[in-house]
Amino acid sequence: MRLHTLLIGVLLFCFSATAFGYEETRSLTLSAAEVSELEIYCGAGYLRVTGHDNLQEIRVNAEIIIDRVSKSRAKNIIQNDLRLTLNRQGNKAVLTSEHERRSGIFGRDYSVRVNLTVEVPKNIHLMMEDGSGEIAIRNIDGNLGIDDGSGEIEVEDIRGYVRIHDGSGELTLTNIGGNTEIDDGSGRIEINVVHGDIRVHDGSGTLRISQVTGTVRVDDGSGDIRISDVGGDVQIIDDGSGGVRLHNVNGSVTRGNERSENARIY
Fold first, then answer.
1. Quick one: 260 exposed, middle or buried, by C-beta within 10 A (0-12, 13-18, 19+)?
2. 116, pLDDT greater than 50
3. Do residues 42 and 97 touch, judged by C-beta distance below 8 A?
4. What gap in Å lies between CA 195 and CA 160, rounded to an integer?
5. 3-state per-residue secondary structure call for 57-96
6. Dihedral angle over CA of 96, 101, 102, 106, nearest 10
7. What pTM value is reported for the model?
8. Most confident region among 118-122, 129-133, 259-263 by mean pLDDT
9. Percent of the chain predicted with pLDDT > 70
10. Which residues of 59-94 are buried (b: 16+ CB within 10 A; e: fewer)?
11. Could you tell me if 118 and 140 are in contact, meaning their C-beta atoms sit under 8 angstroms apart?
């Protein structure tokens, strides 16, 4: 009887623990005077960065969400285990959103994610390391570097050089003003309008590239490849498995050891 009562108590405790949740919003600001680069280090949660004309500071809105905990425990986690800072180091700003994961008596019995919405001067350079979650970057005149674990990535209206290293998730790039390099594990990749060269190393997933002024170089594991409207050469080092369709390539086309000059359709 006592064992039965104890089991019921444990089940009720577990149910009550999972029923709780906590949300909190914090804001961070930093003067952007003489700041040329922003580095971002973040874990779970979405990251959205938008550049603005004439903005004189970096603004961060952080939505902290902790599932399956009471309010008091959530506040303890935020105080002791969550690092949310925006600091300046010379001409560089550093935004950090990291959670030190701790286990309760029942193991990892809660989850933490921090959704970041960031506004920056549009002429800044961006470098970021992200754990998981959606990334959306828009309207930046500087260079962009992304090292991402998983989650969808959308990049639009970037004037500078773009480099992305991604584990998994869809990638969409639109209107890039400089050279672009992508190293991707898996997931669909779509690239439209690049004023420069493109280099793509892709593990798996459909790859679509269009409207490129420079050259295109692709090393692909599996998945269909569609490339169109390229001003320079196209080199497909390896296409693994999947169909390949090229249209309107002004330069030469190389696929493996085969080469075709002035290819329009391949």
1. middle
2. yes
3. yes
4. 10
5. EEEEEEEEEEECCCHHHHHHHHHHHEEEEEEEECCEEEEE
6. 150
7. 0.87
8. 118-122
9. 86
10. bbebebbbebbbeebbeebbeeebebebeeeeeebb
11. no
Planar angle of CA 125, 151, 58, nearest 5 degrees? 30
Cα dist. 54→18, 40, 58, 121, 136 in Å? 46, 21, 12, 7, 21
Give the per-residue pLDDT at 4: 53
Checking if the pLDDT of 9 tops 70, the result is no
Cβ atoms of 44 and 64 closer than 8 Å: no
Structure-block tokens of residue 18: 């999972």
CB-based contacts of 257: which residues, under 8 Å, 6+ apart? none
Strand, helix or coil at 30?
A: strand
180 vs 187: CA distance, rounded Å: 18
Classified as helix, coil or strand, 12 is helix
Contacts of 211 (CB under 8 A, 6+ apart): 192, 193, 194, 228, 229
Q: Quote the DSSP letter at residue 162.
A: E
